[in-house]
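User: For a benchmark we're assembling, each entry needs the component sequences followed by a predicted structure for the full assembly. Here are entry 17's components. Please fill in the structure.
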Amino acid sequence: MAEKFDSLEEQLEKFVENIRQLGIIVSDFQPSSQAGLNQKLNFMVTGLQDIDKCRQQLHDISVPLEVFEYIDQGRNPQLYTKECLERALAKNEQVKGKIDTMKKFKSLLIQELTKVFPEDMAKYKAIRGEEPPP
Amino acid sequence: MGGERVGHAGMMENFSALFGGAEPPPPAAATALGFGPGKPGGPGAGPPPAAAAPQTVEDVARKAAAASGPFYLMRELPGNMELTGSTNLITHYNLEHSYNKFCGKKVKEKLSNFLPDLPGMIDLPGSHDNSSLRSLIEKPPICSSSFNPITGTMLTGFRLHAGPLPEQCRLMHIQPPKKKNKHKHKQSRTQDPVPPETPSDSDHKKKKKKKEEDPERKRKKKEKKKKKVGGSKGEELLVHFPTSLATLMLPGRDRTRN
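Assistant: Structure for entry 17:
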């Protein structure tokens, strides 16, 4: 999985570095740096072409839109993953609690109904078979 | 969660499965209700129950008993094999490693902690400088589908005036402040000047000592960097630019490490 991203990562790093150098050239421009600037501009075009080529390997990758919110707010996108996992676990525990409670309720109801309607409950148990204890 | 996704694949499928598994849709067998003989066409009467799965002889006998017994509205129990929230789904999908990695220790809050080598002030909200990724999706730029090199005539549009940029346009040099004191003196070159917090006497002495060494160390460092750049793609730049620029040209990683 991770190898898929290596080439994209490399291309992006090169691109960012090229842009950084371009920024430095422009921030204090000297007439003699025109040739270098032209070269950097064309590096930028080839860089974009290279990044575009990486699309072929990554067509099956999906990115949740919520993660963009984190990046746009200048927050670490790993926080999104963290919150996602925490939310999943919390929900998991919540549902488990509900299931366990319902199982307890069921056995208690059967127990009480057996006291009041012993014959019907005997029939019920015959249909359902032996219930495993909760 | 599942609704706001780009595509359907990869690791996120596990996440959606995590949530999906926690609240399973009612199984086909559960929707089929068995009614007693006394209540034909009672409330909720639907099509006859369809046998979704192969049934054992015991199951058939039980169903027959249920139909003739005193119970109506009795339905099949959902199978125990189904994946529900009663199992630890993170363990089930082998995500303990990811869970421990992200939830075991504190994840740093800022984007610059995730992308330490990215130049510029990236911790500011994207809406400030119109660089948000969201806007890129909502309002995609109008452009052609291919990238063409900039030829001679087009390059004339990039002829610039000599001299430094005005102060307010120098966004490139603003870096997010880093907490490590070790790098403080180096960042002062690229960062906005920040008034120092009243240092104690001992700190002051240490700083003085460092300052005395500084010119000598700087010179050595410059020579070292020149050698490094000489062999790489930065060579052509060194021909044109003064040395102060050449030192800035070094890749971001090297700057932070040295």
